[in-house]
Write a structure and sequence with these properties.
magnesium; 14% strand; Rossmann fold; metal-binding; HAD family hydrolase; five-stranded antiparallel β-sheet; HAD-like_sf
């Protein structure tokens, strides 16, 4: 082992330094890789990566506040909003992913996997869930409901709540809730299209992009294990080039450029269209950024490509869908469409996962106490049912018996009294237990988020976001570099999927 260390230190001192640092890093469960569906990495030949929020992890506060401010400026400039909105301040902790925006009613909504409404905000004012019929919301109308599914959409949702507050305060009365939504959507899209957002990021990349010190080692480990890597991003080449250079070019691992990590680089991919449409590939001139139609039979590592579609991609690399793994952060654009339309295996990067798991560890004792209280309530409810059934049987017996001796009447009366006392005791204990459960559940929820609660759950149910993560991603984790801690050809196996009648298996453990 020492000989190997000396050889590595001599041949690649930077790699030796990074490896030593990484091995000595204390890794807890927040950096785990979680399995929804079995995935045998030995059968994967190509591994693809999105860039934004996948390889490039943005500094949350900085990037969201920048998008918020630029959108405000465009609302004033392009949509004639009053200049007073420029004084609005951004709160990067106000919104979580997985919410729905009802731009007919001006509400933000959190729903669970059964589409039941769990929490509602009108602007910044909490509402009762019964503002929706049967506590459910119809997600099928895009003219009314939109999703807060990406990290890029958080400032958009928060700005919407602030402008709805202005409407209710009588300071923005000339626009409907839907018009406000459309205006925000137009302006935030414009900040992406006209380059105003990206130019600010490129002016000070270190401010907006977190450089994972172990990303290069992880990519290198994939390559040394025989995997072929490709980059598939919606960003333009000029932006991709500068961000990737910042992330990888300063790590001296015998790669002369970030480009050397990837067999194929595809920019401006227009996902999810890449997985649904038949757009051809184009080759990008690196100097002029002009695009020409690509008509070759194979990709070249020294070329940059744009647009395209997954069918042509698979044909060019001569690989089947289940031999391709794609890692991204966007449930709809990266994971759902690639899994549903192309049969590619998928990994979802959930940046919030590390904080969410840390908070779960912090409330672990409360969660265990909640389980004990819930079990106690269930037992009391069962006892109540038994007492009530026995009392009902006793009353039927009394009715059917015509004549009773004094002793029999006394015995029946005593039994009735005991059963009624048992019912009162159960009801009293259930009420006390319910109060404790309600208080404890509120404390646990507020520990995750004061308004929205945990990201992946609500109460005892999985949230809409948690349900999507579970349904569409083969694996999920908090960052790409977590793969370094696992064998590259690992067979990721999911937990046994049990049904309610199998619950005894869990209890026996």
């Amino acid at each position: 082992m020492e000989t190997l260390k000396r050889a590595l230190r001599k041949s690649s001192p930077e790699k030796f330094r990074l490896l030593t640092e990484l091995v000595e890093t204390s890794i807890d469960g927040t950096r785990d890789i979680f399995v929804n569906r079995p995935l045998n990495m030995s059968q994967i030949h190509y591994i693809g990566f999105d860039m934004d929020y996948t390889l490039a992890i943005y500094n949350k506060r900085a990037i969201e506040e920048l998008a918020f401010v630029k959108t405000l400026e465009k609302l004033v400039e392009l949509r004639n909003y009053p200049e007073q909105i420029l004084d609005l301040n951004y709160n990067d902790e106000a919104i979580i992913r997985g919410l729905l925006m009802d731009h007919q009613k001006g509400n933000l909504i959190k729903i669970n996997r059964f589409k039941q409404v769990c929490r509602v905000l009108h602007g910044s004012i909490p509402l009762e869930t019964n503002v929706y019929f049967n506590d459910k919301v119809d997600q099928s109308d895009p003219q009314r409901i939109s999703s807060v599914d990406t990290l890029f959409s958080l400032p958009e949702a928060y700005l919407y709540t602030l402008l709805v507050d202005l409407v209710e305060a009588g300071q923005l009365t000339s626009r409907s809730y839907h018009e406000i939504y459309e205006d925000i959507r137009f302006c935030i899209d414009m900040t992406h299209r006209d380059g105003s957002l990206k130019s600010n990021i490129l002016h000070d990349i270190a401010k907006y992009v977190y450089k994972d010190p172990h990303l290069s080692l992880t990519l290198d480990k994939f390559i040394e294990s025989g995997k072929k890597l490709f980059l598939l991003t919606n960003s333009e080449f000029y932006y991709t080039d500068m961000i990737m250079e910042y992330l990888l070019d300063t790590d001296n691992l015998n790669y002369t450029s970030w480009r050397n990590y990837f067999e194929i680089v595809i920019v401006n991919a227009r996902k999810p269209g890449f997985f649904k449409e038949n757009t051809p590939f184009y080759e990008v001139d690196e100097k002029t950024h002009e695009e020409t139609l690509f008509n070759e039979n194979a990709f070249q590592a020294d070329k940059i490509y744009s647009k395209g579609n997954y069918i042509a991609f698979e044909s060019l690399i001569q690989a089947k869908g289940n031999e391709v793994l794609y890692i991204g952060d966007h449930i709809f654009g990266d994971v759902m469409r690639s899994d549903k339309d192309s049969n590619w295996r998928t990994v979802l990067v959930v940046q919030e996962l590390e904080e969410e798991l840390s908070k779960t560890e912090e409330v672990k004792e409360k969660l265990l106490r909640m389980r004990r209280l819930t079990n106690k309530w269930d037992k009391l409810h069962y006892e109540l049912h038994i007492f009530s059934s026995q009392l009902n049987t006793l009353e039927n017996l009394e009715f059917s018996l015509r004549e009773l001796t004094p002793a029999e009447s006394k015995a029946l009366a005593k039994t009735r009294e005991e059963l009624e006392e048992g019912i009162r005791r159960c009801q009293k204990e259930m009420e006390k237990t319910e109060t404790k459960i309600h208080t404890l559940r509120a404390e646990i929820s507020a520990h995750y988020h004061p308004i929205w609660g945990p990201l992946f759950h609500d109460g005892d149910e999985i949230s809409r976001f948690g349900d999507q993560v579970r349904d569409y991603a083969s694996l999920y984790t908090s960052r790409v570099s977590n793969f370094f801690f696992y064998p590259i050809d690992r067979y990721y196996k999911s937990l046994r999927d049990i049904m309610p009648h199998d619950r005894w298996l869990e209890l026996s453990n």
